[in-house]
Amino acid sequence: MTTEPSKAPPLYPKTHLLAASGIAALLSLALLVFPSSDVEAKRTSLSLELESPADQLTQDQDASDAQQATNAATESPFAQIENTPEDTRQAEAKPAADSAKNPQHREVIVAKGDTLSTLFEKVGLPSATVGEVLATDKQAKQFTQLKRGQKLEFELTPDGQLSNLHTALSDLESISLSKGAKGFAFNRVTTKPVMRSAYVHGVINSSLSQSAARAGLSHSMTMDMASVFGYDIDFAQDIRQGDEFDVIYEQKVANGKVVGTGNILSARFTNRGKTYTAVRYTNKQGNSSYYTADGNSMRKAFIRTPVDFARISSRFSMGRKHPILNKIRAHKGVDYAAPRGTPIKAAGDGKVLLAGRRGGYGNTVIIQHGNTYRTLYGHMQGFAKGVKTGGSVKQGQVIGYIGTTGLSTGPHLHYEFQVNGVHVDPLGQKLPMADPIAKAERARFMQQSQPLMARMDQERTTLLASAKR
Fold first, then answer.
1. Per DSSP, what are the bridge partners of residue 202?
2. What secondary structure letter does DSSP report for 396?
3. CA triplet 152, 153, 158: central angle to 5 degrees?
4. What is the pLDDT of residues 216-264, one digit of tens each?
5. Rounded to an integer, what distance in angstroms lies between the CA atom of residue 68 and that of residue 215?
6. Among 146, 172, 190, where does a domain finish?
7. For 307, phi and psi rounded to 5 degrees?
8. Residue limits of the Opacity-associated protein A LysM-like domain (predicted)?
9. Domain count, the chain
């Protein structure tokens, strides 16, 4: 009989082996999820020379800002770019960075209470240097006429002495002091602006001044436009909502920046459905004036309104009850209500018969225009410089200012118009015309007028088309 060898008993019970397998599996999983410190150090210590997404975004933003700055120099002067707080912090940090690159260059901004001495101290210069600088040139004293917000640029020598001082007085003018062998030399630099033309279109929704400002015209340009069309349009009572205007005017540009405006070159104003045109023309003698697009003079013997943008408070009437005397008395003129001090203009060229007090009219100016016409301006606060009895005035010249002198209940101008000694309603009086373009210059005028009119048509068409998109 053969005997089978007996099997060796297991070293560990089956339950123990299962538990050990489970523990091993958990340990493996833990090592995968929670790597040891050695493994983690190897994973994070690798350094790559690559741009992070944030760095790339910053570079893209810098490129975008640079492109915006380039575009801003060529865009419409009325486009405005506002700085964000981050832009402001970067702008404030820039001078410090520049100083780090060039320790000899310092910039300071004039603050309230600053003097030239305090500004010198801010850049580390002794106060005695101020006296030395001002004593070298009489014109150097211009540096003491400081304005809040003005920037002064200092150039220092390696040993901390002043070598150059520079500041801009305006967009077109700057002054500087440079140290030489004989002391500081003063220098003034004036930049001559480049003239270019610009176009603007506006629709009147409220007042002319507000609508013009919204369209991009400055206050002075708006006044110029009113003056150009003032012979045909009474801006005190004729303006209506929906009236439109187009203007081509001169812009003064220096270093890519609009620094001012010049003359209106051409304009078009649609008032109550009727369109008026104006073109500036300088004849061969050098005299400039405005004409309609076909060559008729815009200038007439009288302007319709002696006060710009005033409100008519009382009209011409032969049976008005006087507000102070409380009885019926003919009101042989037109009253224009406006704030005290508003300028009053002469309606036409003429001789001043009176510039003084006259009864209930208070301070009064009376002007004789040739043999036929006479105008009166009453209740003035005062007279403009140079306006006196016996003198002469030009059309549009300021002769006085709105007031309440005489029998007046509030600040206004009382304006009268006489023809051969008879009072007439100045609002209804047909004004005499001036001469048109001379025949000898008509062809030259049309060579200027036609392209300007065509450009206004083209600009408006383009503007309206872009607005519909």
1. 245
2. T
3. 140
4. 999 999 999 998 998 888 887 788 999 999 999 999 998 888 989 999 9
5. 22
6. 190
7. -130, 125
8. 106-167
9. 3
